[in-house]
Amino acid sequence: MGCVADDYTGGTDAAASLRRAGLRTVLRFGRPEPGEPLPECDAVVIAVKTRNVPAAEAVAAALAVRDWLGPVAEAYFKYCSTFDSTDAGNIGPVADALLDATGRALAVVCPASPAHGRTVYRGHLFVEDRLLSDSSMRHHPLTPMTDSDLVRVLARQTPHPVGLLRLDTVRRGPAAVRARLETLAAQGVRHVVADATADEDLTAVAEAARGFALATGGAGLAGALGLAEATGSAAPVGAARTASKGPAGAARPSEVPEPPSTPGLVLAGSCSAATLAQVAAAREAFPSYRLDPASTSDPAELLARASTWRKAHPGGPAMVYASAPAAERGASRLGPDTAAILERTLAALAVEAVAAGTRRLVVAGGETSGAVVEALGVRAVEVGAEADRGVPWCVTADGLALLLKSGNFGAPDLLVRSAAA
Ligand SMILES: Nc1ncnc2c1ncn2[C@@H]1O[C@H](COP(=O)(O)OP(=O)(O)OP(=O)(O)O)[C@@H](O)[C@H]1O
Ligand SMILES: O=C(O)[C@@H](O)C(=O)CO
């Protein structure tokens, strides 16, 4: 199974889910070079930083990954469980391109991740007990989500018809789901938003989609599809595998490469609600420095000041954060590129810290993680145990431990726990 993820934390989330399903999983960052061999594994996740790039660029990256994957049994497209995107891209165009490339009848669209409180009902995406548009995603700095109706949202991103697979059909099981998908495909529908409010719903959708539809969505459906691939038929997502061997005789996923027992540096760029609470907890627990875009109009000076602070706190744990609630983000003096400048600044701090000996980095936010991983030149990692659901430790071949945290994931003490040795 091959999975293309549209950001780096999304990649770690999907990889954790596939690993949990019992698949030996490798996570790669960035577009693979043509001719580069596929890693020996049951599932490979390729994370590309395309969530916020122009649609044509995202399509090119996804197609390059698809070509590289070759004849995998299933190709999965992972995007955010909160459907992070704008009307100008990228989920619709990438799904359309992957449909053309795979020849599948239609795409199933299901960001639901019940374990994280993301559910889809009648095509509407909920975050816990609120509609997406009433959740904190309304104020996301890059992809504010103000419409919860995914059929409507996706219809603005693709010229093709978008349909709905209702929960009552999903609850009738995989055969009923498959029949409905076939009917919709025959009617010319090319994307089907699937309701799912529980892991068992994802299992039914995954089983019905296998071999027929292109599956797209969050880590929940990726894990369900992974389990269906692993066992030949779907079983409840998250169910423990009992056999000592994985699929096709593969060994069980290797045990966790443990993060090194030295305190870490936290770099937080996410402004999501969960991150803001985690940053507040970390500020209480150890020294921290706020990267304040209102403090200067000069990116070099922003970095120089933060760098001086970091060098004065070499032992860790320590945190540099840009994260701020919407009400505090208006006063930037860095201009329209504020978000990218903050990402680059945090990435430069990561490079400095690693050069100075830091072996444990905790990064909050998908775009921020992408910038950090790219600046460090990390291309592939082994995926270890999860610090919290969907947030696995990733360890490079030379022993650098990275915790790349999706903005809205993790308990309030996640940064405190994971930065400590
Ligand atoms: N104070 C700030 N003002 C403006 N933009 C900011 C500020 N702090 C952070 N940002 C930008 O907000 C963006 C946050 O996106 P990022 O993907 O890192 O987090 P996220 O969306 O919460 O995480 P995920 O994608 O994992 O859900 C980054 O581009 C970051 O540079
Ligand atoms: O699906 C999610 O919510 C995360 O994996 C993610 O994509 C955050 O960027």
TrEMBL record:
Domain Four-carbon acid sugar kinase nucleotide binding as annotated: residue spans: 265-415
GO molecular function: kinase activity
Gene: otnK
Family in the record: Belongs to the four-carbon acid sugar kinase family.
Pfam families in the record: NBD_C, SBD_N
Protein name per UniProt: 3-oxo-tetronate kinase
Role of this protein: Catalyzes the ATP-dependent phosphorylation of 3-oxo-tetronate to 3-oxo-tetronate 4-phosphate.
Matching InterPro entries: 4-carb_acid_sugar_kinase_N, 4-carb_acid_sugar_kinase_N_sf, NBD_C, NBD_C_sf, OtnK
Keyword check for Aminoacyl-tRNA synthetase: no
Domain Four-carbon acid sugar kinase N-terminal: 1-225
SUPFAM superfamilies attached to this UniProt entry: YgbK-like
Catalytic activity: 3-dehydro-L-erythronate + ATP = 3-dehydro-4-O-phospho-L-erythronate + ADP + H(+); 3-dehydro-D-erythronate + ATP = 3-dehydro-4-O-phospho-D-erythronate + ADP + H(+)
EC number(s) per entry: 2.7.1.217
Region (Disordered): 238-264
UniProt keyword annotations, A-Z: ATP-binding, Carbohydrate metabolism, Kinase, Nucleotide-binding, Transferase
